[in-house]
Write a structure and sequence with these properties.
The structure holds two protein chains of two kinds. Chain A is mostly helical. Chain A has helices at about 5-25, 30-55, 55-85. Classes of the chains: A mainly alpha, B mainly alpha.
Chain lengths: ~100, ~500
């Protein structure tokens, strides 16, 4: 059996990759995908813990998270489309109408 | 599902049903639908308030302990519904002027309010998370509601991206807490952390494992059979990041000014009061109930964040020339004051945060109602110099704004003063002398930028022509409630404070 720590470390790595993508990518859609990656890393944690604790709670949470991620994608893509219509760009560095 | 269960979520149920009805109404009615939608929304909010009365006296846990309709949730429900009513009243004329779709707007507002209600009542991290997402997703859309305006969609994008980023952190924290304690139920987590229950069997005894058979767990061996401290510390840190973002506390406040500036002004008011209050409700519940017994000293995290928020908010606000941005930075600073009371980590501190949220909601809603009205079409007049001479052109409007600003400074006889007073008293009683000194210092810095607006209103000549349209009846009503409420809280705070204290004690003492 693969030990629990392997799963936890894998999901920590995936989460960190998501954070790095969020911080360093410049394309809005890629940034959005990084967030999805973070959510799925958390899902992996939930499933692994749930299996190891022999509790179904964790797996049920994963369903909820998937539904929420889907709703978030719907809202997020709509927002990205309005931004694109207004600015004709998907580069975050150009979304700079408001500054200190 | 028993009738008690239904009563515990009846306000949310009413809000969601009415929200759907409002959307249908907007789709099918052609003539005068704006008025109708607003009217139905108000009725729905009042009905939800009436449903709330059924929850009194407070009952036990509903839905097998998932929802707690306790005085704490009662208090916050009243606050959210009151805020939503005032926002609806001040939105009607704004929506007409900006030609926005009223049906969707009101429906989203109702959904957001329902989500906030769940955040305050949830006793399970899954439900808290879902409530948070319901309210956040609705607010993302509301922020970008002026979709043809570039800065509105830009602020929606910033809010959305940073919001979902923070949500992921919160969720990761929840996952680790689940792993460490074997449960997501807040009250059970508390027992586990206090060492009363075995982390692995805790979940089984209260939740019941599928199939009903008690299982001996390999995980117990893997996790060492006791609560792993480092995992808990990591979980607390991650949950803190997620929630600090939602209350716009430093160092997770970067989104606040941009979002507040670009959002439609009534929505900004809603974010500054409703969303912040809901996030604080969740914050208080998670930290004072679930993490009460944690070995990790989380008040030190709050200490740092409180100091940073106060300084960042107040110092950055000094240079602002846009009213909405000014209030955004002030909102960061006020989150800092509330965190000061929270750091005290006592029933009094919790009650103070609750009192402060009420006072803050009243003064901020009043200020934003004036800004929304003054902004005129396309929000053209939102700079501080546009308020020059307002005291002579429209004395009543300026008077209401002055009351709100004085309360934000913390001048005696206003709710803001007593709020700050209780904050520092709670901090002193928990021996947080340094934090109190820094807080008082910050209140002094803050006076400068609010006074700048007051000086503009009463002591300077207008530099450009700013139209002064007549105040609609609904907005006048909001202003009267906010200004009157602010003064009332400053003179007779006892009933609100006592109820908050009662709710806080219930929260802390309850299993």
């Amino acid at each position: 059996m693969v030990p629990l720590s392997y799963y936890l470390i894998l999901s920590a790595i995936l989460f960190t990759l998501g954070v790095a993508g969020f911080l360093f990518k410049r394309n809005i859609v890629t940034i959005f995908m990084s967030v999805e990656l973070m959510l799925n890393a958390v899902n992996l944690t939930f499933v692994a813990l749930s299996y190891s604790l022999r509790q179904l709670d964790g797996q049920i949470i994963v369903f909820f998270v998937m539904v929420i991620a889907a709703a978030e994608a719907a809202v997020g893509l709509a927002i990205i489309i309005t931004v694109f219509r207004n600015r004709e760009s998907l580069n975050v560095d150009r979304i700079d109408l408001m500054k200190l | 599902m028993s009738p008690e269960d239904l009563i515990a979520v009846l306000p949310e149920a009413i809000l969601t049903v009415v929200a759907t009805a409002v959307m249908l109404l907007a789709a099918f009615r052609t003539k005068g639908k704006e008025e109708w939608c607003g009217f139905v929304t108000l009725l729905g909010l009042l009905a939800a308030m009436a449903a709330l009365i059924l929850q009194w006296p407070p009952q036990g846990p509903a839905f097998d302990g998932m929802v707690l309709a306790d005085p704490f949730s009662f208090f916050f429900h009243l606050l959210f519904l009151g805020i939503a009513i005032l926002i609806v009243l001040s939105s009607a004329s704004y929506l007409r002027q900006e030609r926005l779709a009223a049906g969707e707007y009101y429906a989203l507002l109702l959904f957001a309010t329902a989500g906030m209600g769940l955040m305050a009542a949830a006793n399970d991290l899954i439900l808290s998370f879902i409530g948070l997402e319901i309210s956040s997703l609705s607010s993302y859309v509301l922020v970008g509601f002026r979709r043809r305006v570039a800065i509105s969609s830009e602020s929606a994008l910033k809010y959305f991206l940073l919001g979902s980023f923070a949500t992921a952190f919160l969720l990761y924290g929840i996952a680790l807490l689940f792993g460490a304690t074997g449960t997501t139920r807040l009250t059970v987590i508390r027992e586990v952390l206090r060492g009363g229950l075995n982390p692995v069997t805790a979940g089984n005894s209260t939740e019941g494992i599928v199939g009903g058979s008690p299982v001996l767990l390999p995980a117990a061996a893997q996790l060492g059979g006791e609560v792993p401290t480092s995992l808990i510390a990591l979980a607390i840190g991650l949950i803190f990041v997620g929630l600090a973002f939602k209350v716009s506390a430093a160092p997770f406040q970067v989104w606040t000014p941009d979002v507040y500036q670009g959002a439609p002004t009534p929505v900004t008011a809603f974010l500054a009061t409703g969303s912040k209050a809901a996030a604080f409700a969740l914050f208080l519940r998670v930290f004072t109930v679930a993490l009460d017994g944690a070995v990790y000293p989380w008040p030190s995290l709050l200490w740092v964040s409180a100091v940073l928020s106060m300084f960042v908010g107040n110092l950055a606000a000094l240079w602002q020339s846009n009213m909405k941005r000014l209030l955004a930075y002030s909102s960061i600073a006020h989150a800092g004051y509330m965190l000061v009371a929270f750091t005290a980590n006592s029933a009094e501190g919790v009650a103070t945060v609750m009192f402060y949220l009420v006072a803050y909601a009243l003064m901020n809603l009043g200020a934003f109602a004036v800004i929304a009205h003054m902004g005129n079409q396309g929000e053209r007049y939102v700079a501080i110099e546009d308020y020059a001479g307002l005291g002579f052109r429209s004395p009543v409007l300026a008077g209401c704004l002055s009351v709100c600003l004085l309360s934000l400074i913390g001048i005696p006889l206003t709710g803001g003063f007593l709020g700050k007073f209780y904050v520092f008293r709670a901090a002193l009683r928990s021996d947080l002398l340094g934090l109190t000194v820094l807080g008082v210092l910050n209140s002094a810095i803050a006076a400068y930028y609010y006074l700048k607006v007051l000086v503009a209103m009463y002591m300077s000549e207008p530099t450009r022509e700013v139209p002064a349209p007549p105040v609609p009846a609904a907005v006048a009503c909001v202003l009267a409630v906010c200004a009157g409420g602010t003064l009332l809280l400053g003179i007779a705070p006892q009933s609100v404070l006592n109820f908050a204290l009662y709710a806080a004690q219930w929260l802390q003492g309850r299993m």
